């Protein structure tokens, strides 16, 4: 047996003992785990804070108060802001539910490709609605969400990894 062959066989045997959802090229996705948890927590906290502020209460309309503080471009105000003004309660619910659901999905590492794109779009909408501020959290959040989406960050200690290990065929994994 050539030198080094025994080491190669030992490594192969060692790899078989590792659970399937932790094996494979996980270094890159393992590095993204803290970012995935941070992004998920951030959005989850935004949604949770809105619940505490009464956004889901039928008698409170928080969205019009928020819209008054925004300085969006004219084209955005005509399309999105007018629709939000006409359907305050619906938009309040949609905002809170999307923040909570996609924050939880990101933290759990579930469908991270789709979740990352949705969170990036939500950050982009917030960025445009606020009038394109250069000193906001929205641009870094958008870039982190896109990075997590492209890297499929849920493949390490996430629901995506468990489903992949069980050979479940889910699109966009």
How many individual β-strands?
0
* Residues in β-strands, percent: under 5%
Secondary-structure content class:
mainly alpha
pLDDT < 50 stretches: none
Query: Separation of termini?
Result: 41 Å
Looking at the chains present, what oligomeric state does this protein adopt?
A: single chain
Q: Assign an overall shape.
A: elongated
H-E string = HHHHHHHHH
Integer average pLDDT: 83
Number of domains: 1
Largest sheet: none
Helix content: 55-70%
Distinct helical segment count: 9
- Rg, Cα atoms, Å: 21 Å
Write up what this structure looks like:
Helix 6 crosses helix 7. The mean pLDDT is 83. The chain has helices at residues 5-17, 27-31, 33-52, 63-69, 74-86, 88-108, 112-129, 138-151, 159-165. By secondary structure, the protein is mainly α. Helix content is 68%, strand content 0%. The chain has one domain. The longest helix has 21 residues, at 88-108. The two termini are 41 Å apart. The chain contains nine helices and no strands. The radius of gyration is 21 Å and the shape is elongated.
Compose a concise summary of this entry.
With 173 residues, the protein is mainly α.
List key phrases describing it.
173 residues, mainly alpha, 9 helices, 68% helix, 0% strand
């Amino acid at each position: 047996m050539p030198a080094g062959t025994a080491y190669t066989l030992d490594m192969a045997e060692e790899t078989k003992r590792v659970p399937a959802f932790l094996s494979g090229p996980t270094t890159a996705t393992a590095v993204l785990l803290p970012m995935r948890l941070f992004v998920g927590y951030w959005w989850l906290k935004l949604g949770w804070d809105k619940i505490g502020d009464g956004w889901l209460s039928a008698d409170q309309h928080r969205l019009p108060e928020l819209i008054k503080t925004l300085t969006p471009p004219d084209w955005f105000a005509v399309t999105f802001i007018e629709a939000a003004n006409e359907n305050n309660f619906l938009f309040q619910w949609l905002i809170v539910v999307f923040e909570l659901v996609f924050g939880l999905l990101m933290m759990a590492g579930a469908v991270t490709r789709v979740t990352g794109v949705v969170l990036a779009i939500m950050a982009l909408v917030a960025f445009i609605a606020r009038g394109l501020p250069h000193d906001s959290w929205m641009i870094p959040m958008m870039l982190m969400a896109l990075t997590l989406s492209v890297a499929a960050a849920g493949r390490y200690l996430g629901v995506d990894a468990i489903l992949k290990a069980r050979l479940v065929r889910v699109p966009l994994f």
